[in-house]
């Protein structure tokens, strides 16, 4: 990924992402569905316009989520470390360390989440509706059989690693700082809320990393990500052509994030073969 400091915004090449109107997807607008399918099969990432009446309440919840995040992350490290669960799945993750929680037990949730449970429940429910609507729209556009519709592999009552992640990247203190290594996300679809500069995507034409529009790196950067993931028992083919369950792929990829660059270079899991145009496979 590029380490260019985006202080001079006019000189930075930015990615061109297609805006998709969520209200039009709900209305089954054929031209908007065609735009969605085109964006997914070319660039990959796209903007989702949820300013319409059908989803605008999600933007209102977003504002409140940022307030909760700022209050939480501004706490002393020793306070946040009380939410360190010792694994990589959930919980507080300090820089360079994986932390999480097993079995999705509410008793282990951070206090900041417990006192805002209604906000978190509402936000997750609305984000899930948006992502599942997009998945359903894509399945219809691809004329998928009803028995193999994408929704069938993302059942609400089944076990999965679908999750909400709240991220704060500390402001850059020197030009060599990097918030995250290059990767594809783990799952079917990521709904990302990010208003500040820092996110990069790989151009399918140039295979270079381009910034998306945003603010500056001189302040802490916050983003909210809802990761829609397959049911844990769903199996598919990995980039090496081997069968793998969604749970195993998730666990393997999370472990890869903690590996050294030398170890990461030895397998295809980090980028899901996106960095190898001569081979085909999943990119999740």
UniProtKB/TrEMBL annotation:
Pfam families: DIOX_N. Residues 20-97 form the Non-haem dioxygenase N-terminal domain. SUPFAM superfamilies: Clavaminate synthase-like. Belongs to the iron/ascorbate-dependent oxidoreductase family. PANTHER family: 2-OXOGLUTARATE (2OG) AND FE(II)-DEPENDENT OXYGENASE SUPERFAMILY PROTEIN-RELATED. This is Clavaminate synthase-like protein. The lineage of its organism: Eukaryota, Fungi, Dikarya, Ascomycota, Pezizomycotina.
């Amino acid at each position: 990924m590029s380490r260019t400091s985006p202080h001079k915004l006019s000189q930075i090449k930015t990615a061109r992402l297609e805006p998709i109107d969520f209200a039009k997807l709900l209305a089954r607008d054929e031209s908007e569905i065609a735009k969605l399918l085109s964006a997914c099969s070319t660039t990959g990432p796209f903007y989702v316009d949820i300013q319409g009446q059908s989803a605008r309440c999600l933007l209102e919840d977003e504002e409140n989520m940022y307030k909760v995040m700022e209050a939480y992350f501004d706490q002393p490290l020793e306070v946040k470390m009380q939410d360190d669960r010792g694994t990589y799945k959930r919980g507080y993750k300090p820089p360079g360390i994986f932390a999480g929680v097993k079995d999705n037990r509410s008793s282990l949730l951070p206090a900041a989440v417990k006192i805002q449970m209604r906000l978190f429940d509402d936000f997750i429910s609305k984000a899930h509706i948006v992502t599942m609507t997009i998945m359903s729209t894509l399945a219809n556009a691809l004329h998928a059989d009803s028995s193999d519709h994408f929704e069938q592999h993302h059942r609400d009552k089944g076990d999965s690693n679908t999750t909400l992640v709240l991220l704060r990247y500390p402001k850059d203190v020197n030009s060599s700082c990097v918030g995250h290594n290059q990767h594809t996300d783990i799952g079917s679809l990521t709904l990302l809320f990010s208003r500040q500069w820092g996110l990069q995507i790989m151009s399918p034409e140039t295979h270079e990393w381009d910034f998306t529009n945003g603010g500056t790196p001189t302040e802490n950067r916050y983003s909210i990500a809802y990761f829609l993931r397959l049911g844990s028992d769903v199996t598919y083919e990995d980039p090496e052509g081997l069968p793998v369950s969604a749970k195993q792929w998730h666990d393997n990829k999370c472990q890869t994030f903690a590996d050294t660059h030398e170890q990461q270079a030895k397998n295809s899991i980090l980028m899901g073969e996106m960095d190898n145009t001569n081979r085909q496979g999943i990119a999740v």
